[in-house]
Amino acid sequence: MDRTQIREQAFKLIYSLEIQKTDKLKEAIDLFIEANEITSKKAIDYIEDAILGIEDNKKEIDSKIEQNLKQEWKIERISKIDLSILRLAIYEILYKEVPFKVAINEAVELAKKYGEDASKKFVNGILASVVKDNNIE
C-alpha cells in the first residue's frame, strides 16, 4: 500500500466518522482496519495518527477552514466529503510537515474522485489560502 492509498483509506474513515458521529474513535479505527484488511504497520500507524490527530486539533483545523470560506458560508454548508478531505490535508500541512504541494495535490485528487464537480476547485482554493495565511513555504 503506497502513501496515496493509505491517505485514501484515512479519508474514508474520516468521512465515515463524520457520518456516524461516534466518540469511540479507537474502536472505530480498529473496526475499519479489520474490515478493510489493512495489515501494513505503516498504514495502520498513519491512519491512527491522522484520525486521533485531527480529533485533537479539530477546533483549530475547522477554524482554518472557516476563516477561508466566503462570508455568507458556514462550515456546516460544506459537503461531508469536502470537509473530510480538507481536515486531512490541513492536518498533514500544519501538524505532520507533509510538503504542502503534496498535501494539496493529494487532496485535489481525492476531491476529483469522491467529490462533486466543484469540489476540486473548492478544496484547492481553501488549502491554498490556508498555506498563504500560515506563511508556509
Could you please describe the fold and organization of this structure?
The structure is a single chain. The protein is mainly alpha-helical and 137 residues long. The chain has one domain (3-133): NusB-like (N-utilizing Substance Protein B Homolog, Chain A, Orthogonal Bundle), CATH 1.10.940.10. Helices cover 74% and strands 0% of the residues. The chain has helices spanning 3-20, 25-35, 41-56, 58-67, 80-95, 100-114, 119-133. The radius of gyration is 14 Å and the shape is globular. It starts with a helix and ends with a helix. The model has no long low-confidence stretch (mean pLDDT 93).
Characteristic terms for this protein:
single chain, 137 residues, mainly alpha, N-utilizing Substance Protein B Homolog, Chain A, 7 helices, globular
Topology:
Layout: H1 3-20, H2 25-35, H3 41-56, H4 58-67, H5 80-95, H6 100-114, H7 119-133
In brief:
The chain is mainly α and 137 residues long. It has helices at residues 3-20, 25-35, 41-56, 58-67, 80-95, 100-114, 119-133. The longest helix is centred in the first third of the chain and has 18 residues, at 3-20.
Shape: globular
CATH superfamily: NusB-like
Q: Give the class from helix and strand content and strand pairing.
A: mainly alpha
* pLDDT averaged over residues: 93
Instruction: Give the H and E element order.
Output: HHHHHHH
What is the top-level CATH class? Mainly Alpha
Strand content: under 5%
Measured distance between first and last alpha carbons: 29 Å
Describe the main β-sheet briefly.
none
Share of helical residues: over 70%
Total of domains = 1
Low-confidence stretches: none
Quaternary structure type = single chain
